[in-house]
Prior knowledge:
homodimer; 385 residues; alpha+beta; 5-stranded antiparallel beta sheet; 3-stranded antiparallel beta sheet; 14 helices; globular
Amino acid sequence: MCLHMLTIYLGHMKLYSLAAALANITVTNHEVTYDPDTSWLKFHLGINRYALYSRDDPTVLQLIKDMQSMTVISAVVKPSGHHLKLALKMRNLAKAMFKPMRQQRDEETPEDVFYFVDLQRHNAEIAAFHLDRILDFRRVPPVVGRLVNITSEVLKVTQNEDLRAVFFTSPANNTCFFAKCLYVCKTEYAACGSPDLLEGSLSAYLPGLSIAPRISIPSPWIRSYTFTGREEWEVNPFYCDTIKQQYPYNSGNRLLNIIDMSIFDFLIGNMDRHHYEIFTKFGDEGFLLHLDNARGFGKHAKDEMSILSPLSQCCMIKQSTLLRLQLLAQSEFRLSDVMRESLQEDSLRPILTEPHLLALDRRLHKVLRVVHQYLPKESTERICK
Amino acid sequence: MCLHMLTIYLGHMKLYSLAAALANITVTNHEVTYDPDTSWLKFHLGINRYALYSRDDPTVLQLIKDMQSMTVISAVVKPSGHHLKLALKMRNLAKAMFKPMRQQRDEETPEDVFYFVDLQRHNAEIAAFHLDRILDFRRVPPVVGRLVNITSEVLKVTQNEDLRAVFFTSPANNTCFFAKCLYVCKTEYAACGSPDLLEGSLSAYLPGLSIAPRISIPSPWIRSYTFTGREEWEVNPFYCDTIKQQYPYNSGNRLLNIIDMSIFDFLIGNMDRHHYEIFTKFGDEGFLLHLDNARGFGKHAKDEMSILSPLSQCCMIKQSTLLRLQLLAQSEFRLSDVMRESLQEDSLRPILTEPHLLALDRRLHKVLRVVHQYLPKESTERICK
């Protein structure tokens, strides 16, 4: 059965070598039994060169339901600076990344905090998945909110010593855990339950890198991760002309995909998109994954126009993206309304405060203003200057 | 003149060897000129085996005034984990430690935060000096609040490269600085001006260690700096019986001084007194310095009775301390009223919120309740059991 499923998997995704995939399944087969009809496997099988899932794929609904309800069988704390992440394994090879709540919904990023030291917000991770789906990109792996009992559901089910080492009881008798210590253990970064219940986001894992390799590519519009540095795109208004000449941005849809990503990031207010990932086996035409969106939705009152630089400097946009944005600017399908309704499905609702929802409408209009400013009416999906 | 002053200094304090002191003065003399009539030198000369300053010493008033107004001539960032401290030098060998504001007056320590990772509060440092003076201990070096322009008064006056390396401009265009990086620079710990003005506490430096050596001794009631550990004093109700047998607590006033310190710490709510310091040259009878009080005043609603363990386990108290506490429990000299009035002198007033001031009265009554519970009426300054 394993091999049968594997053949389908291989045939469908055309992502990997049989040997590598077999090696992977052999190892996991010793440890767990799995049902080929699982939502994870079906999700992985459904990934294609255009998107992570198709528009009306029932698998995603099942995956969301499973992530909300499946029993955790083991947990691993991921080393990640001071960010808190737990990789949770469920039955049938199901796996999700848990990011705990770090701040209240109405707390905003302090004005003096740089984008690269901002906290990660579990609700931003959830909201970004919904927005990506509403924009019809389908480049964010499914994310759900879940109230987890970190003692009985996480700590007690795992024998992992690394994990046990980061759990502690706070002075208020709440169960807490902190990031895997790279240098010094920082309990001030801990996330704490009340006393054991802690809400967080669960993001569905993609197929393992040995099965479906991905590469991480620096964004051409990467920011300077220093206090004073400026990147070329910030000072050269003709920067895109250079990029347009360079591989892989000189042909195909890669640059248009970068512009899609910049619109997505502008809407969520994410300044921290230093790299993007693609599945290698789809080649240069594959879609861009929109992973790690937890630094979005930090400041509802701030529209960071520099995030839109790929759009405003290259002045091109996919027709399908533009049409979707125009649709969501209409009063019948107002983005904030669609988002509000979509986010109501999540068990941790409300996911976003009203000011953050309304900011989406304001930002959407700003995107369209940029488009109309630079693009002649008839010009879509091509360079306008 | 140097040698003349030095001789007086030596004769008065009897703290050091002539050679060491001469070496110290020779070095500093190359760099600065100083006036022997400065408040710092007079403060240092006034230190004796009983206290840092005498009750009505006009030097302290002058020192406070000088700390508030003197021009900074250089600054050094002190490595201190993630705590932010700048050593500021003024003319005439004047030196003070600057601790910047990290949280608002009405912010409380979150309930899940351990005492050893709590932020340091500049206003707690200021308030602790006033309380120590009101309690007639005079074991805290003078502290004042000051609004400092960290750009013009600190950054621009110093050529120190280490200092420049920790200054940066925040996304909101405020001038900020972070702690000297031991491992990774953590801008999320930064303190920021508005845009350059930042309030903080200035604590007067004690004489240098080469002139007046001090030793740091672990408190017998030290806490376990781990998540789960318990120290013997926490589980053994007869712990003090053991301590009373041990040098240096088996004679003289050292144990009574420890008890004074525990009362002081209980009143300010400081659980972080792991060590205490004494001037070595005063011998075993010298007073205990109450340094580093910035983790006090974190939770106005919490009275941490374990801090009083030295008092409740040893059941002894100095008569002078008890009389002072009883005085401050009377309505004419209510501790909160005396503190409120005293703190009004500071330029950063209000230093403490009303709930923190009122907590002092409540805690004072709890101290007296412990005293009356364990001590027979006539028994002071001696062991009661």
